Amino acid sequence: MTSSQPSLTVFGPASAARAVVLVLHGGRVTGTGAAPRGLAWARMLPFARAGYGDGVAGWLLRNRVRGWNGAAEDPVRDARWALAEARRRHPGAPVVLVGHSMGGRVALRLAADPDVAGVCALAPWIENGDPAVRGKAVLIAHGQRDRITDPAASAAYAARIGATYVPIAHDGHAMLRRPLLWQRLVTGFVADTAVAGPRHTDRPPLPGAEWTPYFTEPSDRP
């Protein structure tokens, strides 16, 4: 039995937010059973309640079902529902999509929505033929030890659309070995994209370093 409605776990203002961070969890290629508040959902909870600043709402979406399910694209439908809720509850507020794995693919699919200010895709599931994102801020980060989704596919997609790509050394799909790095990457991207406006974009990348204009890398290496 599946849930008839997706649901939201909300942190921050209930109305009149100046920005919304919509967090999208991972899932499976196929699966019509109800999506539980399991590991895929719990993994993204810290990104929803990260504390992006006064007046910024963090939303964690729970999909109706576990899977993408081919042409049905069930999680895309659920995320569109959440975007409509953001428009209803916080009219005019920019939305930043933060998605992991299947949620990263959903976020990239919805980047063209006029209320979306930017997309942060973490270890995204990317397939050949996925549409290009144009005219939006996009950050793609991928653990170099990931064996579930493909870091090379993320790097190639980022190059194709001109997005920022950050390889995360010493980490895999679950983002467990370097949590502070992932967290600072996302919070910095949100601040630059939807809250404070661009910062530090004139700094050149450091050769061989995991550098991005959105944060200073913490010393959380193993």
Automatic annotation (TrEMBL):
Pfam families in the record: Hydrolase_4
InterPro entries referenced in this protein's UniProt entry, alphabetically: AB_hydrolase_fold (IPR029058), Hydrolase_4 (IPR022742)
Domain of life according to the entry: Bacteria
Residue span, Serine aminopeptidase S33 domain: 66-129
SUPFAM superfamilies: alpha/beta-Hydrolases
Annotated spans, Disordered: 196-222
Protein name: Lysophospholipase
Organism, as annotated: Paractinoplanes bogorensis
